Sequence to fold (624 residues):
Amino acid sequence: MSSNTPPNQTLANPQAPRWWLWLVDRVAAIPAHAWAVMLVLLVMPLVADDFFLFQIFGWTFILGIVALSLMFLAGYGGMVSLIQMSVAGLAGYMVALFGDSGTTISLGLPWWFVVPLAMVIATLFGSLVGLLAVRTEGIYTIMITLAMASAFYYFTRQNYTIFNGYTGFNLVLPPDLFGVNWREPVPFYYLTLVAAGLCFLLVTYVSRAPFGLALQGVRDNPRRMAALGFNVTAHRVAAYAFASALASVGGILLVWQNAQIAPGTAGIHATFDILIIAVIGGLSRPSGPFLGAFLFVLLSTFAPDVLRAIGASGERYKMLIGGIFLFVVFVSPDGLLGLWERWKAHLTRDDMARGKGETRP
Amino acid sequence: MTTETIKSPAAATSSAGHALELRGVSKLFGALAALSDIDLAIRPGERRAVLGSNGAGKTTLFNCITGDFLPSTGGIRLFGEDVTRFPAQERIRRGLRRTYQISLLFNGLTVRDNVYLACRGVSRGRFSFLRSRADDSLMQAAEDLVAAVHLSDLIDTPVSVLAYGQQRQLEIALALAGAPRLILFDEPAAGLSPTERKDLVEILTGLPAHIGYVIIEHDMDVALRVAERVTMMHNGRIFKEGLPEEIENDPEVQALYLGDGHE
Ligand SMILES: Nc1ncnc2c1ncn2[C@@H]1O[C@H](COP(=O)(O)OP(=O)(O)O)[C@@H](O)[C@H]1O
Ligand SMILES: [Mg+2]
Fold:
């Protein structure tokens, strides 16, 4: 909070630049459990095997980033957009199309040009969808973005000049930057961890910046925001643009992880998976989507085995995921974040109860 | 009471004439004339009360002045400028503010952030993704306004958990942000406890002299304490206007308004 830094601190300490004071301020404000999570994630490669690093954590971070873009729109903007996975998919497709792949359509341009280009194209696409969607509310926003997500899916299946139709692109690999093979488990783990961490920090920061606060104001009361001099529509479209830029990061990492992309990558199932992840995790804070993604990845990876072990068909794992989704939403409206909050509140209540017990004669 | 927070605009009284002037304003909702041929003039810095029974057209009058509704006929001038066709935010930029009869707040945000948004709305950088030096001064202004409506102890509390009376006070803080010159208060005292009413009167009478206001108020005692002149409305028309004591002792008013006001 800016109020933590008295204005005369800069005067008392003329060498220290403002950004440094700001940074010190921010770092000091990080709570203990966040330090613990950071530490655990940093040393994870010492304990986890390759499968866990690449498949479980890598995938968690990627899906978490795409779900984070939905959390930003839904949690701060009150707009439930189902287009985020399509935006991510488009970014992945653009990397494959403009960069290298095993398909002759690919243009083979250098990665430092392709990656920003893919992000710009995907962001423009997401903003355009936003432009059409922001004049609707609630269920209609969901329907219009779902319609556009399906249109995108069918278009990628039928178009062979850009999206290479049903087969899509294979052999889409990350660049050999610094002589590292970024699809090796440990480098890929750190690549996705850093990307997820930056997206998380960015969303956290923007949520407290003028734009983020204004967006929350638009969510709570668009009429009053207009009466205070804000352009409500423009804020909503800008939120779509920002969220689409985030989703495109997830999409690029996803195509590198799979080394391929096809219509199903951003199909209707994937679209709903992102919604489920964001809702299971909780929409009130940026950590929710990552919690949701972790649970989702664990379930879709191990549920078939668990089901087979108890004698059921492994094919039914989607039902198990659906059941757990229902359970979490049923017991806590704010997903895993809500459960965590309730558990914390429970602890403090216990403490208070114990405190009272001691003072009682 | 921190009056310094409300900046004194250089040109507050430079335009000779009125802060607000309505000429022949009417508003029809289908066949219903919510307002008929309203003439009203408010001097800069004037404090005016509008009284009238439910459905008299008081809130509709405010909606026409702020630009929420377009009047069916007539013209509105704000600080000498014809704003009849201006959108709401253009009127806000000219120093007009309002509160709402039913609070319109940002329930998911804290008291501080609510007022901060109000300060931000009339300043630059509404789309900024970065916090800057200017934000600190806006945040400071927000904190001062929170203090002005006696909510400093609750500054980091989410609005959704505030008591009703506290939400009404916050409504007022949102209207005081920026550099207001004329504020429209829509029944700010309705539903308040006697202590909260006293607080409210203190806030209103403590406003800097260059800020004029129009207050809709059912409670005659409050209205008489905070207003220099009183306008009586009935069935969409202005029915009487004068000094508080004239209105209070007017037999017609007593028959028409105070009669059913004390039902
Ligand atoms: N948006 C609207 N649409 C239709 N009728 C309205 C609308 N707003 C107000 N009215 C009607 O106009 C009349 C005046 O209402 P209002 O201005 O709210 O009265 P007051 O604030 O004095 O109680 C009432 O009869 C009300 O039903
Ligand atoms: Mg009213």
In short: Chain B has a mean pLDDT of 85.
